[in-house]
């Protein structure tokens, strides 16, 4: 039994919509040995090694189902067993993975084993360790030679694996923040092997490293690390702090302790996690020893007066206390029967305790520090403590050394709450943890005393989200709300383009359109990565690595991803979801590679792009294989693209209110036309598109149609053009000076025989100077200006915004008679349309996009009739495509409209049944 090949999929693939690992496994002679034949000795040993397998439901979908499957009938084969073992090994390392799937390849004894993973290296190691475990449990005569090293121990290997996984896994605080972001729908990317994480995409991104955020001031972190300076700042504000001195030698430490007065505490100057701290030191000898312990962690050591009381961690986020926890050092409680060592073993049997951060609590260790604590208490590991006696094994209460945590958020005294908030604000941290000693946290420090030992940058969240006792607190949510206040964007629009032919051209067209609309696009193509039109990386960049590269760029605000077959088969998609997924065509190319032998299999690969589309799936209605993909998308909308204005399915789809982009004949040539909810939107003459060679290059006409459909339905109001009136209308959502200036520049570059008219506005929540800047961006470039306001006044007076902008235009030299103030948006647009004369150009900045666009396209100048409906439906014949096969396969296909699904998205196929 051996692994022949391995593929790691980082995102949606043929096998799942999330990260999975695929192993090609050759059972060899073990193909003849399913689990029932291997017998109860093998099954029982596996169940004993991994007790969690008893919870696996498998096909029975209930606990115990998998073990039942192994025992019943002939059992199951070892590839299937390896799938479950790899999943369970990740479970015991703290990862909540559940998905797996094992299938035969058609070659006897060879299987594909697919299982979910969270961290790449951890997932790979789970498969390797699982294979070794299975081999170790086989009868000696069946065990593959060299598969199990001499002296190998699974319990030891398991613990090593858990530690290996934890070193690579996100820490509990980072996991809490990532989960909180996911609940808000905020995407995230891991940027290194530690805890550096990007929340959000492109220009909206925020970064965290553990609980330090991109907004945490560096100087505040430095202050928090400087225990002496922190003590001085807090003391200067009248906050309770112990007396403290900083020393650099053992002699200085002893002298400082004398001045402060015994008992004292010694701790590293810039330590963390409770390392190197010694408390309640009552003699010069103990101080000298404590100094040397702390010196192992820092060149300087803090000598501090000992404050009596329980150790509390008070967590403050964005100036407010969100959780309070009492921490107790790792300890055992005597029962009068067992020794200290035995009591430690009993405590470690608690299923909540594990290795490191694997579980809620950490195992107690009988190490040198524990022996030192026992020695100070006059005990040894073999001592049997009397019943009820608490024996401490650590001097500090950190969870990472076996401590426990009790939530006290609901009972903390208001004075203590205010004290913690003042302390964190004094240091300047956005997220800070105050270590506070108090005999009774429910009483004010002013009455019972207490002291702030430290203020911590990057405080751990584990004690709050999973306390040993008391209420768990969602302390990550306030951090996410601070970084992304509700209502603020975190995602950039993402369009993924795939197909056999035309995807690079379409992706470039789409990126160009978005750039001209004022966006800063990130583009991935077969020749590189482009940021705002500039190539930053050369080479074939159509896989998941380049997608992540674009989304991590802090400059971009829209992403266009050319998505190729090779990347999908090799590693899956680089994002779990896209706004628009477009499939141009499926043609015979690259067949015979990576297991793809037929066009239908190739279509299944390319279908992934629309399966992960959330807003709109843009599909080539002239390609039967692409057309059938409409049954596999959960996108809110389906937009069909067709060169055939007689296409019956598309016609029915349009009549049902669906979206479509069709090529229609007109007096002046062929027109790219959009349909949505009954609206007929002529967009652009094909001969005006340079890449179409005056409309003759049909493949680029179709590429332009895909780009137009993806752009309009992804970002309506972004530089849409309507020229079916005697005048041309540019329609845009520009609402800042830069975007408005970009459109004004375009209006100046276009050849206009008549006048240029602009309808101008600005959001009411912008500053006056921002509204003035918008007005200045168009001043002197137009013949007439109409100033309006948005429907939402945002606490402004009804005509305040248009009057501010009209005054700015006058101040910039625009004649007063060239300015109209018409506050209502519909009235302002209507006036502009009425003013329009043949040869004029209207630039309309709109707020209510759908309403305003409909107002423009439904406006009827004198003597112009409405467009005629398409002919009635008939059976469809999809003719072969021209120009390199851009439209359809090399055979006509006829089908009926019967059996199609009609719903709020229009008309589409039903998905075919799968195995």
Structural summary, described in words:
The chain has 915 residues and is α/β, with parallel strands linked by helices. The protein has 30 helices and 42 strands. The strands form ten sheets. The chain has an eleven-stranded mixed beta sheet, sandwiched between helices. A six-stranded mixed beta sheet has the order 33-34-38-35-36-37, sandwiched between helices. A five-stranded antiparallel beta sheet has the order 19-14-13-20-21. It is flat, with a radius of gyration of 34 Å. Mean pLDDT is 88; it is low at 714-718 and 864-893.
Tell me the helix content. Answer: 25-40%
As laid out across the biggest beta sheet, the strand order is 25-24-23-26-22-27-28-29-30-31-32
Strand content: 15-25%
- Report the total helices: 30
Which stretches are poorly predicted, pLDDT < 50 over at least 5 residues? 714-718, 864-893
What is the number of beta strands?
A: 42
Largest sheet: 11 strands, mixed
Shape: flat
Calculate Rg over CA atoms: 34 Å
Task: Reconstruct the topology from this structure.
Layout: E1 2-9, E2 20-26, H1 35-38, H2 40-49, H3 65-71, H4 78-92, E3 100-104, E4 110-116, H5 120-137, H6 154-168, H7 172-183, E5 188-190, E6 196-199, E7 206-209, E8 212-213, H8 218-225, H9 227-236, E9 244-247, H10 250-260, E10 264-268, E11 278-281, H11 284-295, E12 301-305, E13 310-317, E14 320-328, E15 331-333, H12 340-348, E16 353-354, E17 361-362, H13 368-376, E18 390-392, E19 404-407, H14 414-427, E20 431-438, H15 445-448, E21 451-457, H16 462-465, H17 476-483, E22 494-498, H18 503-516, E23 521-525, E24 528-531, E25 534-538, H19 544-551, E26 558-562, H20 565-571, E27 578-583, H21 599-606, H22 608-611, E28 613-620, H23 624-627, E29 637-642, H24 648-655, E30 659-666, E31 669-676, E32 679-685, H25 698-714, E33 720-722, E34 728-732, H26 737-749, E35 756-760, H27 768-778, E36 784-787, H28 800-811, E37 819-821, H29 825-835, E38 841-845, H30 849-858, E39 876-878, E40 893-895, E41 901-903, E42 906-908
Parallel strand pairs: 16-17, 22-26, 22-27, 23-26, 27-28, 28-29, 29-30, 34-38, 35-36, 35-38, 36-37
Antiparallel strand pairs: 1-2, 2-4, 3-4, 5-6, 6-7, 7-8, 9-12, 10-11, 10-12, 13-14, 13-20, 14-19, 15-18, 20-21, 23-24, 24-25, 30-31, 31-32, 33-34, 39-40, 41-42
Helix pairs in contact: 4-5, 5-6, 7-17, 10-11, 18-25, 26-27, 27-28
């Amino acid at each position: 039994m051996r692994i022949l090949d391995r593929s790691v999929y980082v995102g949606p693939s043929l096998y799942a919509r999330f990260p999975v690992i695929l192993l090609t496994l050759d059972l060899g002679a073990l193909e003849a040995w399913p689990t029932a034949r291997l017998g109860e000795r093998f099954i029982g040993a596996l169940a004993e090694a991994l007790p969690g397998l008893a919870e696996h439901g498998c096909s029975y979908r209930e606990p115990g189902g998998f073990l039942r499957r192994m025992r019943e009938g002939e059992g199951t084969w070892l590839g299937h067993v390896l799938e479950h073992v790899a999943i369970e090994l990740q479970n015991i390392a703290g990862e909540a993975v559940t998905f797996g799937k094992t299938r035969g390849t058609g070659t006897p004894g060879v299987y594909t084993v697919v299982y979910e993973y969270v961290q790449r290296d951890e997932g790979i190691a789970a498969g390797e360790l699982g294979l070794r475990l299975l081999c170790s449990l086989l009868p000696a005569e069946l065990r593959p030679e060299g598969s199990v090293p001499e002296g190998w121990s699974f319990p030891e290997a398991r613990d090593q694996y858990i530690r290996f996984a934890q070193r690579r896994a996100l820490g509990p605080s980072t996991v809490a923040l990532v989960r909180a972001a996911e609940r808000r729908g905020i995407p995230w990317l891991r940027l290194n092997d530690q805890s550096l994480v990007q929340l959000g995409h492109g220009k909206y991104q925020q970064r965290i490293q553990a609980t330090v955020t991109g907004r945490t001031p560096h100087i505040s972190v430095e202050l928090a690390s400087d225990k002496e300076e922190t003590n001085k700042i807090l003391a200067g504000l009248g906050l309770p702090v112990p007396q403290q001195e900083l020393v650099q030698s053992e002699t200085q430490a002893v002298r400082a302790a004398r001045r402060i007065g015994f008992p004292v505490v010694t701790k590293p100057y810039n330590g963390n996690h409770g390392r190197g701290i010694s408390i309640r030191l009552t003699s010069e000898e103990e101080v000298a020893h404590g100094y040397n312990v702390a010196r192992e962690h820092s060149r300087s050591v803090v000598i501090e007066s000992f404050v009596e009381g329980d150790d509390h961690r008070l967590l403050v986020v964005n100036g407010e206390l969100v959780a309070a926890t009492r921490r107790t050092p790792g300890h055992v409680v005597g029962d009068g029967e067992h020794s200290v060592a035995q009591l430690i073993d009993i405590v470690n049997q608690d299923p909540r305790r594990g290795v490191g951060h694997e579980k809620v609590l950490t195992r107690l260790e009988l190490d040198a520090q524990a022996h030192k604590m026992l020695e100070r208490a006059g005990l040894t590991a073999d001592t049997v403590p009397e019943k009820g006696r608490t024996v401490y094994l650590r001097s500090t209460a950190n969870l990472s050394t076996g401590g426990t945590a009790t939530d006290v958020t609901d009972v903390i005294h208001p004075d203590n709450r205010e004290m913690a908030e003042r302390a964190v604000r004094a240091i300047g941290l956005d997220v800070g943890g105050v270590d506070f000693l108090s005999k009774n946290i429910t009483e004010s420090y002013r009455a019972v005393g207490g002291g702030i030992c430290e203020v911590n940058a990057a405080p751990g969240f584990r004690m709050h989200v999973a306390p040993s006792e008391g209420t768990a607190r969602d302390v990550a949510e306030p951090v996410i709300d601070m970084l992304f206040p509700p209502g603020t964007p975190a995602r950039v629009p993402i369009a993924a383009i795939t197909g056999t032919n035309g995807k690079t051209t379409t992706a470039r067209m789409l990126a160009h359109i978005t750039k001209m609309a004022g966006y800063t696009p990130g583009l991935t193509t077969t020749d590189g990565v482009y940021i705002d039109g500039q190539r930053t990386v050369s080479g074939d960049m159509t896989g998941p690595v380049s997608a992540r590269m674009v989304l991590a760029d802090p400059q971009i605000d829209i992403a266009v991803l050319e998505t190729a077959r090779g990347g999908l088969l090799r590693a899956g998609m680089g994002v779990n979801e896209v706004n628009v997924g477009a499939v141009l065509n499926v043609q015979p190319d690259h067949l015979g590679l990576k297991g793809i032998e037929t066009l239908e299999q190739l279509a299944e690969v390319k279908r992934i792009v629309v399966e992960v589309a959330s807003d709109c799936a843009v599909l080539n209605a002239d390609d039967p294989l692409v057309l059938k993909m409409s049954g596999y998308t959960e996108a809110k909308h389906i937009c069909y693209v067709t060169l055939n204005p007689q296409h019956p399915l598309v016609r029915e789809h349009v009549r049902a209110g669906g979206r479509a982009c069709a090529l229609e004949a007109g007096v002046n040539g062929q027109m790219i036309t959009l349909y949505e909810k009954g609206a007929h939107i002529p967009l652009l003459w094909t001969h005006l598109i340079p890449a179409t060679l005056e409309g003759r290059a049909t493949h680029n006409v179709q590429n332009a149609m895909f780009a137009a459909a993806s752009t309009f339905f992804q970002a309506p109001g972004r530089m849409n053009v309507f020229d079916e009136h005697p005048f041309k209308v540019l329609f845009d959502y520009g609402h800042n000076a830069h975007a408005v200036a970009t459109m004004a520049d375009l209006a100046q570059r276009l050849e206009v025989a008549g006048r240029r008219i602009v309808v101008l506005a600005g959001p009411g929540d912008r500053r006056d100077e921002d509204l003035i800047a918008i007005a200045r961006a168009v001043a002197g470039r137009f013949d007439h200006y109409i100033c309006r306001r948005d429907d939402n006044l945002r606490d402004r007076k009804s005509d305040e915004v248009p009057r501010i902008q009209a005054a700015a235009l006058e101040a910039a030299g625009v004649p007063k008679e060239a300015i109209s103030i018409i506050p209502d948006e519909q009235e302002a647009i209507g006036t502009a349309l009425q003013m329009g004369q043949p040869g004029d150009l209207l630039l309309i900045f709109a707020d209510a996009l759908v309403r305003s666009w409909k107002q423009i396209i439904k406006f009827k100048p004198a003597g112009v009739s409405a467009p005629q409906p398409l002919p009635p439906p008939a059976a469809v014949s999809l003719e072969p495509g021209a120009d390199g096969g851009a439209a359809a396969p090399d055979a006509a296909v006829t089908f009926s409209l019967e059996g199609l699904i009609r719903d709020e998205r229009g008309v589409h196929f039903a998905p075919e049944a799968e195995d």
